[in-house]
Amino acid sequence: MLYSGIAASPGIAIGRAFLYDIEKYKVARYEVSESQTEEEIDQFKEAVQRTKNEILEVKRKVAKEMSKEYADIFGAHLLVLEDPFLIIEVIQKIRKEKINVEYALWSVLESLISNFNALDDDYMRERASDVYDIGRRILQNLVDTKKITLADIQEEVIVVSHTLSPADAVNMYKSEIISFVTEIGGKTSHTAIMARALEVPAVLGIKDISSWVRSGDLLIVDGSRGIVIVNPDNETLLEYEKRREKLNEFIKGLTFLKDLPAQTLDGYRVEITANIEIPEEVDFVKNYGAEGIGIYRTEFMFLDRNELPSEDEQFEEYRKVVSKMNPYPVIIRTIDVGGDKFASQLNLPQEMNPSLGLRAIRLCLEYPDVFKTQLKAIFRTSKHGKIKIMFPMITCINEVIQVKKIIEEVKHELREEKIAFDESMEVGIMIETPSSALCADILASEVDFFSIGTNDLIQYALAVDRGSERLAYLYNPSHPAILRLIKFIIEAAHIKGIWVGMCGEMAGDPAYAIPLLGMGLDEFSMSALSISEVKEVIRNTTIHEAKELVSVILDFSTPEEVEEVIKKKVKEKINYK
Length: 577
Ligand code: PEP
Ligand code: MG
Known about the structure:
By secondary structure, the chain is α/β, with parallel strands linked by helices. The protein is built from 22 helices and 16 strands.
């Protein structure tokens, strides 16, 4: 069976499926070691005991508040827990198949339910129903206390899930997961960005895929074309194995570019930097020859944890990145929590439109202590390498002025504390809202650089949720509105004498390398994986040709016309096998 979705992270993975979505799809199955089976059994016994206590408590309450007659119903449930049938069956399954307890219990309950209707005897049917109800309670107790995360998965599997959060995706770094497939999500969602950062092929937005796949099925995930094949025949398997090899050869064939500059045939030079989310990515980035970090998304350190990271903890994280990248610069982007990234420790109220709500710089200005702690950690790090600082989701000049005032306070405190820092650190902002784009000329007077965040700029300018698989057809960097905004931002910045980078995903798409070059973009920041291809395109182009292409595409009225021309052009520049 072949399913199509959104090609979110390139590459081909072949492996066994692992259904992860506990809430929607009951429980995940995974194998445990011989020694761990007894731990699984102990957890089961504890969950049985906890369930027993809960039922006893309910029985006591009902007897007190209602009548003994009603309370007796729970007596039948207690009998189930004393009946060895369910208990023995589950324990045997864990020992025999060496699997996790939740899955063992769930599968025993599933076979019970399928035998249910076959029973003629009313009494037996009722008993089976009691066993099933109790089993579900035990299962709930197990799932509540033993929440597995993707970091716990130590098998080379392909995760299939309804959805994955950016925090789930970070956890993948510690696991053996080779790929993932989800039912919802867009190409510039932070989950997709993380997949590319970790070089994990991924396909998103395949409706109901979790219902068609079972844990253990053989899957082929073609993240470059957005295709998933379930239980392929031998011929297809062979074909994809060959294709995977070819793709790896293609990537290897570009490694010669690592130490070469991103320079056009006629000598026009731009900078290629990388996007990172966690310090562990720095090694990948260096392998691909990035000339710095164009965006370090620091908020990933704030996700999926109970307390805020302290100033010292942040300092240590930033220092790791900055000293490893030295002498290349690192642009640290201050916390961009909100939207699709949740920091539970802040206990923020739910919003109707999180992407338009208390996100990024708005949140930092609302919580100045959190903001100042981060700024202090960043400034302290500036003595360990070259740092620039950048603020997300700016919409007006007042925010920039407020931020600069807080920076001065932080600097003052550091001087008082006699802590050394780089006094001349460049301060920049992300241009990722239509208002900041249209006021680029005004904002340029206040900062040292811009970095265009096309992921959000497209979302806000076109009014299309970047995480929506249904609206993916409308989310398009080739839309004339986006091209005009980008051109305007770059020109406005250059008139005011500041440089402009781009750290949205558009910068890493080889198809846009020539138009962006032609518009005058100074720095291209992307996931490490894209560096070689974009560099190859730039090195095979002239600045004259790039400018000409820009004047052609700016005359088009539809994204389709733009795409056709730029895709044709990029094919002339790079030899895709
Ligand atoms: C962007 O919006 O383009 C960007 C780089 O920031 P993020 O993807 O983290 O929102
Ligand atoms: Mg953004």
